[in-house]
Design brief:
single chain, Farnesyl Diphosphate Synthase, 2 domains
């Protein structure tokens, strides 16, 4: 299997909404975003799939070394071998990849966030930086597009957090800020137990509605920041935004039934949203 085949397979098997946006890119840009996305998946899988924290920490350390070696001209992992020939063309720097690893390091060492600013710092690493790299690959001419990309990354990460509350609780993780749980009278141990009838109480619903409104505000802010000159080039990002926002609205329509299930959109629906966005340009 070639490095290019490896990253393509990694992206396709993930079932991510990102994959559907990649389909509309010209081959060189598609190759770059696919390789970068595969890198993000590899690093994220270290935290999600390795149960021994010591082993996971060692693996993240290995990835830091691999990034350094790759930018020094000697990549060894298939993902880095696929990515490095394209990195310079699309402004992908070692600092971008190190930031993604830093975000996964936070996941490894921290299972709670005291307040929203702390959560924002985490979202910057795991989503804002990813959005910036993606925007560079898609093509941009305006500096403001970077701010758009960071804000969109935040909105999508907030959506992920809402969707994955039950899955995260099973791993002992709570990404909702502790200060906001306290504000709405929701206790951490109640979230972790995911028990009925409390699970879908008025307190929980109010907390989740607050989270959803903040995510919607982040989507609106991102779209307002996107310069008209870069709108056509950034259509893949707009595809992802529309897919994720549709998912958020689906969760809202189900009254935030996220503790016992993981809401998702079908592949056909994702493809339809991506195609409609491509045709409309928004």
């Amino acid at each position: 299997m070639t490095p290019q085949q490896y990253v393509q397979d990694k992206a396709a098997r993930s079932g991510s909404s990102f994959y559907y946006a990649f389909l509309f890119l010209p081959p060189p840009r598609r190759a770059a975003i696919t390789a970068f996305y595969a890198f993000c998946r590899e690093v994220d899988d270290v935290v999600d799939e390795i149960t021994d924290p010591g082993v996971a920490a060692t693996k993240l350390k290995w990835w830091r070394t691999e990034v350094a070696q790759a930018f020094a001209g000697t990549p060894s992992h298939p993902v880095m071998r696929a990515l490095m020939p394209l990195a310079a063309d699309y402004g992908i720097a070692a600092a971008h990849l190190d930031a993604v690893i830093d975000g996964c390091q936070v996941d490894l060492e921290q299972t709670r966030f005291l307040d929203y600013p702390a959560l924002q710092r985490y979202c910057h690493l795991v989503a804002g930086v990813v959005g910036e790299v993606a925007a560079n690959i898609f093509g941009r001419t305006e500096a403001a597009t970077v701010q758009y990309a960071h804000r969109l990354g935040l909105a999508m990460q907030l959506t992920n957090i809402i969707r994955d509350i039950g899955d995260d609780a099973r791993r002992g993780r709570i990404y909702l800020p502790m200060s906001e749980l306290q504000r709405f009278g929701v206790k951490a141990n109640e979230l972790l137990r995911r028990e009925a009838p409390w699970g879908y109480s008025d307190r929980f619903s109010a907390l989740m509605q607050f989270q959803a409104e903040r995510a919607h505000a982040a989507y609106d802010a991102a779209l307002a920041l996107l310069p008209p000159a870069d709108r056509a080039a950034q259509r893949p990002g707009l595809m992802m935004a529309n897919i994720y926002r549709t998912l958020l609205r689906e969760i809202e329509s189900q009254r935030f039934q996220v503790l016992h299930q993981r809401t998702s959109l079908t592949p056909l629906r994702k493809l339809w949203i991506a195609t409609r966005t491509h045709l409309r340009g928004r």
